[in-house]
Amino acid sequence: MKALILAAGLGTRLRPYTDHTPKPLFTVSGKTLLDIAITKLIDAGCSAVIINTHHLHEQIEKFVARQTYAIPVQTRHEPRILGTGGAIINVSDFWSDQPFMVVNADIVSTIDFKSVYDFHGQHSYPATLVLADDAEFNTVTCDGDGFITGFAHSQSQAKHPTQGLTFTGIQVLDPSVLDFISEATPASSIDAYHRMIAEGKNIRAYIAKDAYWKDIGTPERYRTAVFDSMVSGVYQRFFPEAGLKTPRQKRLKGDGSDRQWYRLTVNQNSLILADHGMKAKNQYDAIDALCDIGRHLFNQGLPVPRIYDGDSLSGYVFIEDLGNRDLHTAVQGAKNADKIIHLYRSAIDMLIKFSRRGAAQFDPAWCYQTARYEKSMILDNECRYFVDAFLNGYLGLNIAYDEFKKEFELLAENALLHAVQGLMHRDFQSHNIMIKNSNLYAIDFQGARMGPLQYDLASLLIDPYVDLAPDIQSRLLAYCLEQLAGQMTVTAAEFRRCYRYCCLTRNLQMLGAFGFLTRVKQKPHFEKYIPPAVQTLTDNLKQNHHKTLPGLGHLMDSINGALASIEKNKD
Q: What is the pTM of this model?
């Protein structure tokens, strides 16, 4: 058996996504539709595959060239689209005297190609077309004996659209069918079938009653197909006892990102879906980092949720469900300071493991922003962010970044001096630490990169969601130093100095984020954390940096004044 995969389409209805990725290279569970089709054909006993190409053909050709399939796979470029019939004729030199398969590249299905090919071999008719039930495209009619009687271009043109079926784009043809395809291009295979029926040539229908099938002609259909396929696959692999039931979906409270979160449940088996939305640009992004870093951390034995499956283009990631209780919730329910300290000591133990064990075999290519926490990043993503999003965007102070440039540079340099280097989470705070069965887990680690452990410790201890008392912060800082001293050489004074500066850079980042989320993203629930974050920054500058960073110290008067004005206007 030989096969043609039709892969030349423009994908107009899938724009702008097909502006950077041809439809056959759209993915399901990280595998391209083209690779899935080729693998299924090989499993069905196919001996050779040819792929017609047109739109973004170089990408398809490069993809095929990188693969090592067990059978010959080649491409044939069409400078202008020849149509489905024209594509079949265009590779006539490829065909033998045996029946061959033609498969659309832009479908997701569980239809078994071998069963289809065997079915064709059991009858004497020149063509077998696979049909399925899809209410949107049911335009093919059959008689009671299983022969196709007609094709309509749309449901509005079909005589009985509710009684029809959908042509799946999967077919087996005898070489004699080539005689009915027009030599003028573009040529449609459907037109050839009309001629065959008119001349009394029967076309057999293979009706895939229980199989899943969906074309990916629109973003909505593509994402539905990916979701259906991935959910089914995850439950089959990790929760086989759940069966094939459709999971219940519950929308969860969002975070500071644009992602949407859902809990999917079948019986008592639940998992979390993080929906990043479809990727607009063909580049490594947060979703890729989440999957790659998550799998690395899990394989290193660190307490993180398992990444069950992920697909970068569609934006879906399926993650282990750790429940609803985070560190913030646990602290709110704690009856005394000793309980809070116990929780935070466990978090610090996890942080040290994350930093040290996570750094082992960590690939910087997994970082979607910068590979390290470095000076340029601090200046742009924290200091400038603080000026643009908080001072000017939220408070409306009209402050120039260059006015504090020297102090920002001093701040950045000292935040890196005496750093205990390891894998830095970058957002290690109470909402990103889950508690399940008394065990702590880190989540939301897609921003991880190499950097100071002190930064993550600062994120944990000055977290405005909890607003730890200063004496508790001091005790926990001392605990972290004690734990580190048992594992490595660390100078307490140097560690504390770096920590104090990391407290500042983290504080600036937080205020920039809260200002941006409140004013730009219209997420007002973040606004209530601005006053405690401002108070922390005021106290830190006053106690530790009044001599080295006098400009920022004086700026706090303007910040507190503007903040008081905003609070007064609310009243």
A: 0.89
